[in-house]
């Protein structure tokens, strides 16, 4: 039974709650239906645990920004908290250790202390390999899935370890396999069963694979970190790992939460958070660009004009490319890459929109309901860069643009992700023309549901543009 004045929602059954009435393959439509019945704040029982859903820009901002001190926790004692030993940053609860680590990453990623090579150079370096892959497909069909996945993964590896890996490298293959399997577990019934029925946690059921996968990734990352320790010069960091080791030296035994043990999980967290998200957004982008030739051509006109005489694009060029900026933001809006954000948790007893929310309640901000919210967008249900342009053709960002969520937990890699999306899209559009194959039938824009939304596999035709 719901606590008094708790957000309304469907009646559940003992033990399973409402799970049997949700389409677990893709519950987004069910959540939409519940919103229409119960309003912007409703609750659903996942097993015996009540979970509160937040919908629409106004409600989500009120919770995550205005009442940030009440809503910025993370649920604890769940499968992935236990499997990661709570040592990363994504699932770490609101508190000094999360705050210190978050601040450190933001500072380091903002180019302070990453060594001689800036973030931009690292991205542009990796793009050369992407160009080669596309060049090999000129006049043929290109399946961009693996290419974008590797580009995003390698950019993070460049930031973390100053290294890139060949596309068929064994180490990357193992890590990617572990991530993919764990994302599937994170999104499937075994995680729910583990979380809601504690007495089955030690049984040899499929969720044990999540523990094995994390151990495998930890061992690989630990080996890499140990190799870097042999060649590092203290005070001259080459990458994120060196910066962290310098920070450890500086702190000594000051009782802070920094430790080598923590670094391993931290590096893995950044890798997992930065790979599928960015690559799925790029995949969605090129699906729309290859099926909307007039939008692609208008981007190319702007790119040619602004970059005339320049060897390669720089991130600053975005300020002279309002149309390109609008297209990339529109791609992020329609790709809705992280549809349900990462679950939050109420840090103390609180209230929202007149409802009582007890401490420890799991909170899910449904970002999907903001990305296509009626009244917030000129064209909420179509792919149209006009959503980000004013009458003078200038780039404007509506308040409802929040694919990275909002508040103190807002995506820590937002700056890096935006730089990647801009530099990769502009470089590829400048050099190549992408078209939808005549015999491929109508494009299917419906994504495959998961922790991140993925476009269905597709192929595009590639031609070299006249220089
Ligand atoms: C298009 C790409 C990306 C999208 C759409 C995206 C989206 C998100 C979202 C929605 C969250 C949850 C925020 C919340 O809890 O309310 C998040 C968290 C996070 N993201 Fe991203 N992200 C992207 C790229 C990246 C990259 C490249 C990195 C790596 C540097 C990264 C690192 C993180 C981390 C560490 C968190 C957890 C932050 C915390 O709990 O304090 N993300 N991201």
Mean pLDDT: 92
Measured on Cα atoms, how large is the radius of gyration? 23 Å
**What summary fits the major beta sheet?**
4 strands, mixed
Q: Strand portion, in percent?
A: 5-15%
* Distance, first to last CA: 67 Å
Q: How many distinct helices?
A: 16
Which shape, going by the Cα principal axes?
A: globular
The succession of helices and strands, N to C, reads HEEHHHHHEHHHHHHHHEEEEHHEE
Bound molecules: protoporphyrin IX containing FE
Structural class: alpha+beta
Strand order of the largest sheet: 1-2-7-4
Uncertain regions: pLDDT < 50 for 5+ in a row? none
Tell me the quaternary state: single chain
Helix content: 40-55%
**Structure summary, number of beta strands:** 9
Family: Belongs to the cytochrome P450 family.
Main location: membrane
Protein name: Cytochrome P450 2F2-like
Cofactor: heme
Set down the secondary structure blueprint:
Layout: H1 28-38, E1 41-46, E2 49-55, H2 57-66, H3 68-71, H4 79-83, H5 96-109, H6 119-135, E3 141-142, H7 144-161, H8 170-186, H9 189-196, H10 208-231, H11 240-251, H12 260-291, H13 293-307, H14 322-335, E4 344-345, E5 350-352, E6 355-357, E7 362-366, H15 368-371, H16 414-431, E8 432-435, E9 460-464
Parallel strand pairs: 2-7
Antiparallel strand pairs: 1-2, 3-9, 4-7, 5-6, 8-9
Helix pairs in contact: 6-7, 6-16, 7-12, 8-10, 10-12, 12-14, 12-16
The protein binds protoporphyrin IX containing FE (HEM).
